[in-house]
Every structure is written in structure tokens, then in C-alpha cells.
Inverse folding.
């Protein structure tokens, strides 16, 4: 099932990146702009969320995590993926990246900012994003040695 979802995410990202030129060339506002939220046939308790995420140049998204897995496809600019307990990763236009469930992260926009299509396999009835403060991040990180 995971391979099917990864494949669908890649197809969607490619379709979004090569959309016909009749569509307006506009950039949505900064933040996570939800494009689709839908249940998944045959997979109770989960939904798909697809977002057009815009991070302005030099801006840092507040530390947070998601209940499910994220599949990121950068369509323009660049960003630094800052994840607790892991080295920072530069993501540039055309890069794809997977963020595991409950990974505390705070991406930062590159010199020109970043825009990405994000496909989430999300636990239904959970908040889209769970913000964490420093104390929560430390406590959450204590269990991070165990695989989820």
C-alpha cells in the first residue's frame, strides 16, 4: 500500500509541476494551503491531505509534527529541512523528500523562498499540524530513539 501511495504522490507532483499553461501563474499566500482532503477507499482511519506550501525567503515554519507521513515535492526555490535529531537537508526545486510520522521539524525558506506540493497520509480526526514548544520537543525526542 505504501508503494501505491508514494507512486500516487509522485504522479500528482509531476502533474502539478507540468500543469497546462492556461492555468494562472499565481503563487498562493505563505503557509500551508490545503488543496484536497479526502478519505482513502479501503484504508479506514486515514485520509490524504494535499497542500501547496509556500515558505517565504528566510522564514522558519514553527516547530511541529504530523500524525502521518509526508511526501514533499519542491516545485520552486529552496528550503532547509530542519528535523530534530537529524542533520539539516537542503531541498531545491525538483527534489522530493519523505518525512516520517511524528518527526519534529521546522523548515526554513532559502534565499528565494520555497514552494512545494505536500502529500500527507494523515490519521483521520487528528489536527493537520501539531505545534511543539522547546519542552515538548525535548520530551517528544526522548522517545524518538524508538521507531514508530
Amino acid at each position: 500500500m505504501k508503494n501505491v501511495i508514494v507512486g500516487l504522490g509522485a504522479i500528482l507532483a509531476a502533474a502539478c509541476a507540468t500543469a497546462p499553461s492556461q492555468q494562472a501563474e499565481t503563487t498562493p499566500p505563505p503557509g500551508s494551503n490545503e488543496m484536497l482532503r479526502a478519505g482513502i477507499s479501503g484504508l479506514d482511519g486515514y485520509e490524504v491531505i494535499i497542500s501547496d506550501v509556500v515558505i517565504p525567503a528566510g522564514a522558519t515554519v514553527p516547530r511541529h509534527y504530523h500524525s502521518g507521513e509526508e511526501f514533499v515535492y519542491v516545485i520552486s526555490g529552496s528550503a532547509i529541512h530542519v528535523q530534530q535529531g537529524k542533520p539539516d537537508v537542503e531541498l531545491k526545486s525538483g527534489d522530493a523528500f519523505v518525512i516520517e510520522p511524528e518527526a519534529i521539524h521546522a523548515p526554513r525558506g532559502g534565499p528565494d523562498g520555497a514552494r512545494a506540493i505536500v502529500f500527507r497520509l494523515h490519521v483521520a480526526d487528528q489536527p493537520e499540524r501539531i505545534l511543539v514548544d522547546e519542552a515538548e520537543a525535548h520530551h517528544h525526542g526522548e522517545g524518538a530513539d524508538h521507531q514508530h
Strands lie at 31-39, 46-55, 64-65, 69-81, 89-92, 96-99, 108-123, 130-131.
